[in-house]
Amino acid sequence: MSTNPPPKPASADPISAVLVGHCGPDSWMLKSVVGRALPGASVSFVSDHAATVHAAATADLLLVNRVLDGSFDDDSGIALIAALRDHPGRRAALMLISNLPDAQAQAEAAGAAPGFGKSNAGSPLAADRLRQAAQSARVGAQSPKAIT
Asked: Is residue 148 domain-resident?
């Protein structure tokens, strides 16, 4: 008789969120916001294109800054979202962090989930959007379409 516990379903694993192209202070603030909205979530930071592409294939959620801080091919978070949208192997939900409604609309048109700005990062709306995006990434990762 085996004493090993049964394996956890994939959805029982902690949500993994990656903060993309944010400065240090904003990264720490957003880490706290994600932690409150998604208790137990693993939150990491990336500030270059290669690490972002890897994170898009392994994480549940990428929170992309509107103006990227770090070593990216372009400083536009919206352009990065558009490039990642159809990237082979992407499983992460993409979300723009910006206070600008026009930027949010452009990001959603480029394939992002509805995001939020830093000025309302602690709001119930931001928490709901984080939970919805993380859930959609989990559902998408388990669908047959995503496994191809």
From this structure: no
Q: pLDDT tens for residues 94-148? A: 999 999 999 999 999 999 999 999 999 999 999 999 999 999 988 875 443 332 2
Distance, in Å, from the CA atom of 89 to the CA atom of 53, rounded to the nearest integer, reads 9
Residue 6 is assigned to a structural domain of this protein: no
Which long-range contacts link 111-120 to residues 24+ away (Cβ below 8 Å)?
111/81, 111/82, 111/84, 111/85, 111/86, 112/64, 112/81, 115/63, 118/26, 118/29, 118/30
For residue 24, tell me if it sits in a domain.
yes
Residue reference for tokens 């480029």: 110
Q: How far apart are CA 81 and CA 53, in angstroms?
A: 11
**122 lies in some domain:** yes
40: left (phi > 0), else alpha (psi -120 to 50), else beta?
left
CATH number (domain holding residue 67): 3.40.50.2300
